[in-house]
Amino acid sequence: MVDDATRKSLSSIPLLRTKAGPRDKEAWVARLKEEYQALIKYVQNNKDADNDWFRLESNKEGSRWFGKCWFIHDLLKYEFDVEFDIPVTYPTTAPEIALPELDGKTAKMYRGGRICLTDHFKPLWARNVPKFGIAHAMALGLGPWLAVEIPDMIQRGVVTYAEKKA
């Protein structure tokens, strides 16, 4: 199911140990620390491989995440807002990653701009609870989704390049 490059990238992301969600008070703090460590490692690995493609930050409680992701196509950088909430049943339930500005532009998306991860990612997540976290959701969920959907949307003219104004 996973190609060698993805397997290598994934193997360098630390696995998480604490099974806790936002309602689990002290355990959530420990889980959140693991999440940040895994994300930092994943982002650093991406930078080292010249494959930097997202920025994330969270609210103080670590329950709401937001940032930017981008995709380079034909040497043009397409940038999108990314956001998601941590479900109350996390980590048993994977977060639903959303790109709100792309809402309704592809069939592989739910209302509110939530990307479709049902067929491929969610079964993989379920088999790896509590080891997978936000970094894994980005690597195995959003990354592959962008790689498939964005070029298709560009080709169909649904997504167009917008030059950044300084």
Automatic annotation (TrEMBL):
Sequence intervals crossing the membrane: none
Superkingdom, natural source: Eukaryota
Keywords, alphabetical: Ubl conjugation pathway
GO molecular function, one term: UFM1 conjugating enzyme activity
Protein purpose: E2-like enzyme which forms an intermediate with UFM1 via a thioester linkage.
Family: Belongs to the ubiquitin-conjugating enzyme family. UFC1 subfamily.
Name recorded for this polypeptide: Ubiquitin-fold modifier-conjugating enzyme 1
Organism: Homarus americanus
Upper classification of the organism: Eukaryota, Metazoa, Ecdysozoa, Arthropoda, Crustacea
